[in-house]
Design brief:
Elements lengths: L7 E4 L3 H12 L5 E3 L11 E4 L1 H9 L3 H7 L1 E3 L1 E5 L5 E6 L1 H8 L3 E5 H11 L4 E2 L4 E6 L3 E5 L4 E2 L3 E4 L6 H6 L10 E8 L11 E6 L4 E8 L2 E9 L13 H7 L7 H6 L7 E4 L10 E2 L2 E3 L2 H4 L8 H18 L3 H30 L4 H13 L2 H13 L9
Parallel strand pairs: 1-2, 1-12, 2-8, 5-14, 12-19
Antiparallel strand pairs: 3-7, 4-7, 5-6, 9-10, 10-11, 13-16, 13-17, 14-15, 15-16, 18-19
Helix pairs in contact: 1-5, 1-10, 2-10, 10-11
């Protein structure tokens, strides 16, 4: 696209929107960002940035800063509720040795602050998008009455995207009858071996784990079946009930839960966006969760949004024809994101097995899978990262 004369608007100033803006700036395109929140607050949970996300951030020149801000992990471990080790992944001897980057756990708010600091452009806060329409140009209207008509409009406004209503009318997130608990413990002391280790525990109907965030902080998550007949917005087990439920699980889960207060735990239904026929319509395009929000079981939601951001910026800078730019972007990104979303859905079914016998058989089977198969999958994930041929 003609960089000097074209206006690019990004709806959504979360991780995807901010990385997209940064990637555009790195290619000489100055976007305008509109974020619904009135301020950036230090809330939210943790993120596990896998190798593919770090490879993208390295292209943008910020991987070292992200690593320094977060906590690089030495290894990751999957256990059964009785503490038996099902699989251990040494991140130093594969990802870091072969690709230069391992996994980094980071608080969402810390990453968001870092990205805002890296940007030249300011974020327009308190700008909640109400509708998107198009005639000769896309038009976005906001709840405060503001109207914009950019040349290109990017919807990075999350799973409940307003922009998606224009690109794919009638598509709504779907709930697979699971709820998620998330929290960041801020005053917890875990043992030395857990200060650089990610952990997962596969139970019966439950899937839990987390990772250290540094400075006595630990990101904890858990999933459970949706209680029948209850509104997920009002269903929240007390911390004491969660402590009791996970009391016999291996460390550091009980220690982390014992450090949490009632208001520390966020409860949400798990949702995903059904596979879309297309991510774009006219001069409007989707990225991140707006296009392909996925279940969290593969740990790839943020990473796939970050991959979107880099490749979309590249595509917009590679041609003056926006139709070809969006087609180029979708050819690279959609098959990969759709494939990983399907993988996440399969893992969700495995991780939420409610039969005691089924859960034991699953855990036994995971223990018998050769490490070489896991290593091949991890290599393929990193090798497949959507990196443009030309560096920025």
């Amino acid at each position: 696209m003609t960089r000097e004369s074209s206006e690019v608007a990004i709806i959504g100033g979360g991780i995807c929107g901010l990385v997209t803006a940064l990637a555009l700036e790195r290619r000489g395109i100055a976007p305008t960002i509109y974020e619904a929140a009135s301020e950036y607050r230090p809330v939210g949970a943790g993120l596990l940035l896998q190798t593919n996300a770090l490879l993208v951030l390295d292209r943008l020149g910020i991987a070292d800063r992200v690593r320094d801000t977060g906590t690089p992990l030495d290894d990751s471990i999957i256990r059964s509720p009785d503490g038996r080790v099902l699989k251990r992944f040494d991140l130093d001897h594969l990802e870091r040795d072969e690709f230069g980057h391992g996994f980094v756990a980071i608080h969402r708010a810390d990453l968001q602050d870092l990205l805002v600091d890296e940007l030249d452009t300011d974020v327009n806060l308190g700008m909640k998008c109400r509708t998107v329409t198009a005639t000769d140009k896309p038009t976005a209207r906001f709840t405060d009455g503001t109207r914009i008509r950019p040349d290109v409009l990017i919807g990075a406004d999350g799973i409940n995207s307003t922009v998606r209503n224009f690109v794919a009318p009638g598509v709504e997130p779907r709930e697979p009858d699971l709820i998620a608990y998330r929290a960041v413990a801020t005053t917890v002391e875990v043992t030395e071996k857990h200060r650089a280790r990610g952990v997962e525990v596969w139970g019966t109907g439950t899937y839990t784990g987390g990772a250290p965030l540094g400075e006595n902080r630990f990101y904890w998550f858990g999933t459970a079946p949706m209680p029948s007949g209850k509104d997920p917005a009002t269903h929240a087990e007390t911390v004491s009930e969660l402590r009791e439920q996970f009391a016999e699980f291996p460390e550091p889960i009980p220690t982390v839960l014992n450090s949490l207060g009632r208001d520390d735990v966020f409860v949400t239904p798990l949702e995903e966006v059904p596979r879309l026929d297309s991510w774009s319509r006219g001069e409007v395009c989707l990225a991140g969760d707006a296009a392909h929000a996925m279940m969290p079981f593969a740990g790839q939601g943020a990473a796939q949004a970050i991959e979107d951001a880099l490749y979309l910026a590249y595509s917009l800078s590679a041609t003056d024809d926006w139709t070809e730019a969006f087609a180029m972007y979708e050819r690279e990104r959609k098959p990969r994101a759709d494939r990983i979303s399907s993988e996440s859905r399969r893992l969700a079914k495995l991780g939420s097995i409610q039969s005691g016998i089924g859960a034991r058989v699953r855990n036994m089977a995971v223990g018998f899978i050769p490490n070489l198969l896991f290593q091949r999958s991890r290599r393929q994930r990193a090798f497949g990262t959507s990196l443009p041929d030309d560096p920025i």
